[in-house]
């Protein structure tokens, strides 16, 4: 059965057709006498490849131009309309990937200028990508069918996004189009059903044709101040439900916290005499849009330490993310509340909705978790709270991981009267954080020791006289704060 190579339904891959012709010719020549010498010419011969050992992204490079591109993939479909097959150029890439701006082979440096055709097509393990300023174009179908892709960070320097480059990226919730971008192909973002917010940084819009279709509803296009009328008058941009002007440039995309089957393991030491330790596992599954925000359902199972976890998972609340903000949604009460914001800076205050405790950002660092598999630098927020005029370390939030003390829900959901710690965070086969691993190096400003415990006070927080940790504002009475008795009048 003959097969054709397709670019969005069109036969454009002439090179691949030549290869199939040579294979066909070889089959015919197998019947000729043995004296007939045959040579099969491989049209891929001479291609130079380099694989990033960290991200497993494959690049091809040209020694003459000293340029490189992310390796192309392909799509095969039978003439009879059968199921298509997708072949990504970097089939082993997963999780977050940073596209290189340059790399060196045998002492020679090559600049990466393009993400080629079908480079990551149907790569369902990729969750986020950062594209450097050296990349000028993203080719046809480059990220098509990347269902788990939630975040794309495009640097200034990108000029073209070709047809269907991000089509069917159903987990993508927002995108920022850099000022340097001058062309977007047909259906480039088609059927991105969670895409609710698009930020365009260009002050002078260019015409587009069906570049955005099948978006989330409602969808909003954010444009520079004073340019709304220009976008409304330019072909293709009125497909959005709303067009709004923005005063400030949006913050860079954060590493996503949410991904399918990502798992958090918590331990809760009950602060009562001979209190046992509860082990809790949380996973996220499914995708849904609530109030224009991408959410995943939280499934939980638990047991006492030393026992086996049950096979049954219980459905709990929903966890959502929009840009730098993390949300908790209770499907029973219909309450949607923010639980953390990675856009906070030193000195900013974040109020917990459950008990109206104010958390102040004491430090912000880019740090590497020593126990992580990828050794990626992640943004860390060190939070403290002030009670009775005394500042106490309260929590640490790490980009892509969550709270190191309270897990994915932060201080808003926990066992009353218990000491809690995040023991492990795993995404597929990658360990993002392990408290029991080797030394947990999260920066000089970290208030944690090598066991993941608070340095200044292993029982940081406010406790009653029975040793039970408080999770809400204390009423009148005597309490223990940082080892000292305090009186609330």
Describe what this molecule looks like in 3D:
Strands 2, 3, 4, 8, 9, 11, 13 and 15 form an 8-stranded mixed beta sheet that branches. The radius of gyration is 26 Å and the shape is globular. It has 3 domains: 1-46, no CATH class; 50-246, Leucine-rich repeat, LRR (right-handed beta-alpha superhelix), CATH 3.80.10.10; 263-486, no CATH class. It contains 2 helices and 34 strands. 4% of the residues lie in helices and 39% in strands. It has 489 residues and is mainly β.
Q: Would you tell me the structural class of the helices and strands?
A: mainly beta
Overall spatial form: globular
Strand content: 35-45%
| Mean pLDDT across residues | 77
In the predicted model, the low-confidence regions spanning at least 5 consecutive residues are: 1-44, 438-460
Q: Tell me how many strands there are.
A: 34
Largest sheet: 8 strands, mixed
Tag the structure with descriptive keywords.
Leucine-rich repeat, LRR (right-handed beta-alpha superhelix); globular; disordered N terminus; mainly beta
SSE order and pairing:
Blueprint: E1 3-5, H1 14-29, E2 48-51, E3 58-62, E4 67-70, E5 74-78, E6 85-87, E7 95-98, E8 102-105, E9 108-115, E10 126-131, E11 137-138, E12 151-154, E13 160-161, E14 174-177, E15 183-184, E16 197-200, E17 220-224, H2 228-232, E18 242-246, E19 263-270, E20 277-290, E21 293-304, E22 314-322, E23 325-330, E24 335-341, E25 349-351, E26 358-368, E27 377-387, E28 390-398, E29 402-403, E30 418-427, E31 430-434, E32 462-463, E33 477-481, E34 484-488
Parallel strand pairs: 4-9, 7-10, 9-11, 10-12, 11-13, 13-15, 14-16, 16-17, 17-18
Antiparallel strand pairs: 1-5, 2-3, 3-4, 5-6, 8-9, 19-20, 19-30, 20-21, 21-22, 22-23, 23-24, 25-26, 26-27, 27-28, 28-29, 30-31, 32-33, 33-34
